Amino acid sequence: MATAARPVSTQTPNDLSAFWMPFTANRAFKKNPRMIARAKGLYYYTPEGKQVIDAAAGLWCVNAGHGHDRIVAAIQAQAAELDFAPTFQYAHPQAFTLATRIAELTPGDLNCVFFANSGSESVDTALKMALAYWKARGQGSKTRFIGRERGYHGVGFGGISVGGMVANRKQFGNMLSGVDHLPHTYNRAEQGFTKGQPAWGGHLAEELERLIQLHDASTIAAVIVEPMAGSTGVLPPPVGYLEKLRAICDRNDILLIFDEVITGFGRLGTPFASQRFNVIPDLFTFAKGVTSGTVPMGGVVARQFIHDAMMNGPEHLIEFFHGYTYSAHPLACAAALATLDVYRDEKLFENAKTLETVWADTLYAAIKGLPNVLDMRQIGLTCAIDLSSRPDAVGKRAFEAMEKGFHDNGIAIRISGETLAITPPLTLTTAHIDEITEKMVKTIKAVA
Ligand SMILES: Cc1ncc(COP(=O)(O)O)c(C=O)c1O
C-alpha cells in the first residue's frame, strides 16, 4: 500500500476520537482537522505535503525555526549518550553547564536557575519559591499573591489563581485563596493602533498601592505579571508601568516575579523582557524558547539573595522541597545548549530587534483599515489584531480566520477570543514578513 512506505509521522490517522485535545474546540477540529506532519524552518507541511507558514512559532516557542540541524543533532547524540539521570541528589554535567549559560544571559544577580518542564510548572515553582523565601526569612505571614486581570500563567492551580483569563478560571472552582488582581492595562480608546509600548496606562501600576492598603504588605509574598501579556492578545506594558511596579514592590518588601515564558529568549529583541524594559524582577520564569520548543523544558531564575536565604540548616538536609522527575532532563539540556548556541551564532535576538520596525510597519500598513479590524498591537516580533465579533457568535470570526488561514491560505496563527496573534520564529526574513502580511490580508478579507 502506498501509505505503508511513508514515515509514521506523515500518516493521517483514521480515528481521531481517542485524543482529547488540549485548548481545542475538539468537535470542530475533528470535523475539519488542521493536521501537521512535518516542519522545517518557518514552514509546516500537511500530510498531503501542502506548505503552511508557521506565523506563530508553534505556540510562541520555536524561536530558532523548525528542525534546526544543530539542535536535532544535539538531541540525537544526547539520547545515545545519556537518556536519563536524576537530578534529585544526583546530577549530570549538562544541567550545570546550561544553568550557567542561562545565568550569563540574565541581568543583575539573577544567578540561580531551577529547572521544570513547562511554563505552568515554572509558575508554580516561582510561587513556591516566594513562599519558601519568606518562611526562611521568618516572615511566614507573607503568603498572598497579586496577579493581574488578563494575565496568563499556565494551567496549574497556582497559575490559574494568579492568572486573569476568565475562561481559564471559571470551570475550576475556588483555586488558591489569598490572591488578588491588578487591573489589566488595555484601553482601546487611549491606546488604539499603538506600535510598541503605549504612552497611556503607566498610572495603573499605582493600583498596587491600593491592594497593599487593603491587605497590608505583611501578608503579601509577591506580585506576578507577564512583562508583556501574551496569550490574552499581546498587551505591551504602558510606558513607566513596570518601573512603577518595581518601585512599589521595593518600598513594601514584596517580591516581583516576571513570567517570561513567552518573552524569554529573544521574542522582544533582547534575551529577556527585563532587559528590553530595563526592570529587574526578583524571580522570573522561562520555558518555550529555551529549547526552541524541541524538548519540553522550563524553569525559574532567582536572584542570589532568594537562593541564599534558603541555604541554611544542616547540610545533609534538602533546602527546598520541590522538583520534578524530569527537572533538567538530559535531552532538554542538550536541546537547550544547542539552541542557545544557535541564538548566539545566528544572532537571532539581534535579528528580532533589526526586523521589528519593518515587521510592524508592513503589517500595520496592510491590515489597519481592513474590514472588522478594531485594533492592532505590536512589540518585538509579536502582533495582535482584534476583529469585531459576528453579531451572533463571539470568537467565531477569529476561529474562521484560523481555519481559512490554514486550509485556504497556507498560514498558521494563534487565536484568543476575537484576537489573531502572529509571533513568527526569530529566523524571520523580510520575504517572510511579506508572505505573512499577504496571507493575513487575504485571511482577514475572507472572514469579512
Ligand atoms: C506567560 C506564560 N506563562 C505560562 C505559560 C504556560 O506554559 P505551558 O503551556 O508550557 O505550561 C504560558 C504559555 O503560553 C505563558 O504564555
Explain what the structure shows:
The protein has 448 residues and is an alpha/beta fold. It folds into two domains: 143 residues, Aspartate Aminotransferase, domain 1 (Alpha-Beta Complex); 272 residues, Aspartate Aminotransferase, domain 2. Helix content is 37%, strand content 15%. The protein has 16 helices and 15 strands. Strands 4-10-9-8-7-5-6 form a seven-stranded mixed β-sheet, with helices on both faces. A four-stranded mixed β-sheet has the order 1-2-3-13. Helix 11 links the parallel strand 8 and strand 9. Helix 4 packs parallel to helix 13 and helix 5 packs across helix 12. The longest helix has 20 residues. The chain is globular and about 65 Å long. The relative contact order is 0.16. The N terminus is likely disordered. The structure holds pyridoxal-5'-phosphate (PLP). Pyridoxal-5'-phosphate binds next to helix 5.
Give a topology summary:
Layout: H1 26-31, E1 38-40, E2 43-45, E3 51-54, H2 57-60, H3 69-81, H4 93-105, E4 110-116, H5 119-136, E5 144-148, H6 157-162, H7 166-169, E6 179-182, H8 188-191, H9 207-215, E7 220-225, H10 241-252, E8 255-259, H11 273-277, E9 283-286, E10 298-303, H12 304-310, H13 330-345, H14 348-367, E11 373-378, E12 383-387, H15 396-407, E13 411-412, E14 414-416, E15 419-422, H16 430-446
Parallel strand pairs: 3-13, 5-6, 5-7, 7-8, 8-9
Antiparallel strand pairs: 1-2, 2-3, 4-10, 9-10, 11-12, 12-15, 14-15
Helix pairs in contact: 3-13, 4-13, 5-12, 14-16, 15-16
The chain binds pyridoxal-5'-phosphate.
Pyridoxal-5'-phosphate binds next to helix 5.
